[in-house]
Amino acid sequence: MDPERVGEDLVPCLSRAEHRLRAADLDPVVRLLLLRDVLALPEASPELKDARASASTSVHVRRLQAAQLPDGSWGPFHSMRSAQRARVPTTEAGVTRALALGLEDTHPVLRRAGDYIERILANAEPFPDRAEVNARWPIGTTLFAAGTLARFRPASALLAEPRSYWTEVATATFASGRHDPEAELACHRSLSGLNIRELRYLELGNAYALALLGSCPGLMAENVERAYCRWLWTRCVPHPGPGYLQVDLDHLPPPHKPGLWDRWLAAQQLMASLPTWARLADSVLGELVAVVRSDGLWDFGPRPPGSPRLPLSESWRTKGVRAHDWTVRVLGLAACLIRSVASDALGP
Fold it and tell me: What is the pLDDT of residues 66-80, one digit of tens each?
């Protein structure tokens, strides 16, 4: 991949949008994401410190904090109850919302959530959802907890065992250079000692396994990582892209489909943890220049129902604010690609 070509496609558009946002009266959360994820200001920067403090007072953060239970959870972990109408329906959704709002493990919301999830992984806290009556469930609950924790506390010692398990599954599954579903199922049976008849949500394509495997550089051998990433990028059965997000990765979503755009950006962000992603994403992210507005910003429409990733700004009633939210997400992804390509060009 040619770093100069990536720059030619994306950098001017990225720079223009950055300048537009910098000149705008941004909501504190959007400002934090711009400074931290796009401009990559140093941690000691007074501007970044001020942005973190301001974002912590956002009405969205306060609502998320108010909904959090004393144990650090938001009730159910993974399975939403059919009659539930909670603002934050699960602990997974609470963590996703916190990360979307720019919170880190040092913030009380994620610190309490992280401690709660670690207790689950240490078997000091029961997994709160109603158990499924099948052999997959014990592996699944550990995966849901570990994959969620890995997104914001990747250095936790309690991730070592789940990482080892899923690394072995990935290595066996892609030993031939291609996805081998029979080898994948056989590896689960061998490692767990359980009579697993079908994988379903345990398939390597799920977003939790991706978050877990991508949270520790060098976890997979290079050939395994390449095969895994390319398989996720192109697969369409049983659904496209990472499971639970289910969106095609290799082309842009259609216009005026905010739900697809929301999941597409989230899926690309998860994929960005894999080194091979940058080589695959180069072309499709370059196409973002074709869907930018004349003012240099992106706006893919109203908030998708139930999305924990939007809104970022306190109100979308103010003209232009919605575009700030979408644009800072696009810029964060584009900046990640450019940094990945630059790092790859420099070599080890």
Answer: 999 999 999 999 987
Q: How many residues does the chain have?
A: 348
Q: Which amino acid would we find at residue 81?
A: R
Angle at 303 between CA 299 and CA 309, to 5 degrees: 95
Q: What pTM, to 2 d.p., does this model score?
A: 0.94
**Burial group, residue 16, by CB count within 10 angstroms (0-12, 13-18, 19+):** middle
Q: 110-124 burial string, b = 16+ CB within 10 Å, else e?
A: bbbbbebbbbbbeee
Q: Specify the 3-state DSSP secondary structure of 331.
A: helix
86-107 pLDDT tens trace: 789 999 999 999 999 999 999 9
The CA distance from 204 to 202, in Å, is: 6
Query: Phi then psi for 206, rounded to 5 degrees?
Result: -75, 155
Continuous segment of H or E residues that includes residue 199: none
Q: In whole angstroms, how large is the CA radius of gyration of the chain?
A: 20
Q: Which residue has the tokens 């720079």?
A: 15
